[in-house]
Design brief:
Blueprint (H helix, E strand, L loop, with lengths): L9 E5 L9 H5 L5 E4 L4 E4 L9 H5 L5 E5 L12 H13 L4 E2 L14 E3 L20 E3 L22 E3 L3 E3 L9 H14 L3 E2 L16 E5 L8 H6 L2 E5 L10 E3 L6 H7 L7 E3 L9 H14 L6 E6 L4 H9 L5 E5 L8 E2 H6 L4 H14 L7 E5 L5 H10 L3 E4 L1 H6 L22 H4 L4 H25 L5 H4 L6 E3 L4 H7 L2 E2 L3
Parallel strand pairs: 9-19, 10-11, 11-12, 12-15, 15-16, 16-18, 18-19, 20-21
Antiparallel strand pairs: 1-4, 2-3, 5-17, 6-20, 7-8, 13-14
Helix pairs in contact: 4-14, 8-10, 11-14
Bound molecules: iron/sulfur cluster (2 copies).
């Protein structure tokens, strides 16, 4: 029907002087955009299917292809953008909820970009990280408020289980099912090589990956998929997922089409059945209920593993975190509103939650004010894009950062934001065997190691520039930060001064 016609968002531009009709693009595009026309003796494109993933562009041996944004427009209207109009058409046609993936792409403020880092000049000299030792080792878990020694000087304070990280970065939760076996293998091997952790997400742990348990965080979400005693014992820490930045307040839904083979066995649900995680945990309606689950999991793992509680950054985050810190949890993970996802309702992803920078500053301050900051470590995620974001997060009060999208980019993701289709051309967000094969874990894990190693060098350089030689001395050191272009209220919540002050 003409009323449903939507002009394609992207155009496939093929340079006929370069195209040799090798049909590589046709074989590589899971969206079936390219085809060879026998009559015309040339390649043709159905651009309405293109998601702008750059796979064909990267593979084309003669660089004959490029993808451009269409210049076809609706009549200008500052209120009704072309995108909004098309979304209304789509919903009027389908009657369904709009689905999206990856993080919120809206032009809301990115506070990391409005915060600048200090450097020493003349006094308090900078430190050269190539010549001086720099400590980035991080321990996550409850810290005692004081150390007691016995009559022989030996420490007698009981230290609860800790996670030890070589650098304050971990790979955030991405379930097997939402991402491929090869993507999980790459993350697991990289975490082991780097001395950090990756996170199973809510899909359980594939049998093949139990050997990486010392570098694995196992997640317990509301659906309890793949959760059993061996699973809880397999990881180095257990994470209770209460919320996720991309979709605060709602559950998850992995379509039955993706519940195949090992994914169904790992999740312990029948093949083809939808994996629906309820919005709340049906046994948690208060901090006391949460406390019961925290201690049930500690009991089940012989009090040998720290328990993390992951929440989405929402309006009253500081009060919620204060409650969690009193629940017996060892670590609180906070996921900001730009956090990625394999699939989320578009309206939720783009309109619910708050920026991680403000959430982190508010939580750190509240826990300090209440004298309970030592009771928990804080891990933040939700669009940590570079080593500079990590340094700013640590100075704002985080103990470590979760990275998800950046890790997937290292594996080849081109942020086409089509993960929900299951046809990821880069072999990441898919279970199709022909597509999964495109991601080689031998290469994938090395690229992740390279990424985190590069960030570690940069973190040390920034620390050295500030005259700081230990990540511990940077933690919560907001004097090292200044704001630019922020109003009084934003500066007050962030707890930093404006540049020039
Ligand atoms: S979907 Fe990806 S592979 Fe297919 S035409 Fe578009 S950019 Fe190329
Ligand atoms: S994981 Fe794949 S489908 Fe998802 S945004 Fe990246 S390239 Fe696109």
């Amino acid at each position: 029907m003409a009323i449903d016609f939507l002009y394609p968002q992207y155009e496939v531009v093929r340079n006929p002087a370069r195209c040799i009709a090798c049909r590589a693009c046709e074989r590589q595009c899971s969206n079936e955009v390219h085809a060879y026309d026998d009559e015309l003796k040339m390649m043709i494109s159905d651009e309405s299917r293109c998601v702008n993933c750059h796979r064909c562009v990267s593979i084309c041996p003669t660089r004959a292809l490029k993808i451009v944004k269409t210049d076809h427009i609706f009549k200008e209207n500052a209120n009704w953008s072309g995108e909004t109009i098309m979304e209304v058409y789509r919903q009027a046609s389908s009657g369904g909820v709009l689905l999206s993936s990856m993080g919120n792409p809206k032009p809301l403020p990115v506070y990391w970009d409005k915060i600048l880092i200090n450097a020493s000049q003349v006094t308090n000299p900078s430190i050269d990280p190539l010549r001086e030792p720099m400590e980035t080792k991080t321990f996550l878990g409850q810290k005692p408020s004081k150390i007691e020694r016995d009559e022989n000087g030996k420490i007698k304070t009981n230290i609860t289980p800790q996670l030890e990280l070589s650098v304050p970065i971990m790979f955030s939760a991405m379930s097997y099912g939402s991402i491929s076996y090869n993507a999980h293998e790459s993350l697991a091997r990289a975490a082991e090589a780097l001395g950090i952790y990756y996170n199973t997400g809510e899909g359980g742990l594939h049998q093949d990956f139990y050997k990486y348990g010392a570098n694995t965080i196992v997640q317990v979400a509301s659906g309890r998929f793949g959760v059993h005693k061996d699973y809880l014992s397999a990881g180095a820490a257990i994470e209770i997922k209460m919320g996720q930045g991309a979709k605060p307040g709602i559950g998850g839904h992995l379509p039955g089409a993706k519940i195949v083979g090992d994914v169904s066995r790992t999740r312990m649900i029948p093949e083809g059945s939808d994996a629906i995680s309820p919005a709340p945990h049906h046994d948690i309606y208060s901090i006391e209920d949460l406390r019961q689950l925290v201690f049930s999991l500690k009991e089940a793992s012989n009090y040998k593993k720290p328990v993390i509680v992951k929440i989405a950054a929402v309006h009253n985050i500081a009060a919620i975190a204060s409650g969690i810190a009193r629940s017996g949890a060892d670590i609180i993970a906070i996921d900001g509103f730009r956090g990625g996802t394999g699939a989320a309702p578009t309206r939720i992803r783009d309109n619910v939650g708050i920026p991680i920078e403000l959430a982190l500053a508010a939580v750190d301050q509240r826990l300090r004010d209440e004298g309970i900051r030592n009771k928990v470590s804080l891990v933040v995620g939700g669009s940590i894009r570079s080593s500079a974001d990590v340094v700013k997060a640590i100075a704002l009060g985080a103990d470590a950062c979760y990275i998800g999208t950046a890790a997937l980019l290292a594996l080849g993701c081109h942020l086409c934001r089509s993960c929900q289709t299951g046809k990821c051309n880069w072999g990441i967000a898919t279970q199709r065997p022909d597509l999964v094969k495109r991601l080689n874990p031998d290469i994938g894990y090395k690229r992740l190691v390279n990424l985190v190693t590069a960030w570690e060098h940069e973190i040390k350089e920034m620390m050295g520039g500030m005259g700081i030689n230990s990540i511990e001395a940077l933690r919560g050191n907001r004097l090292m930060l200044r704001g630019v272009g922020l109003n009084e209220k934003e500066l007050q919540i962030l707890g930093i001064k404006h540049a020039g002050e």
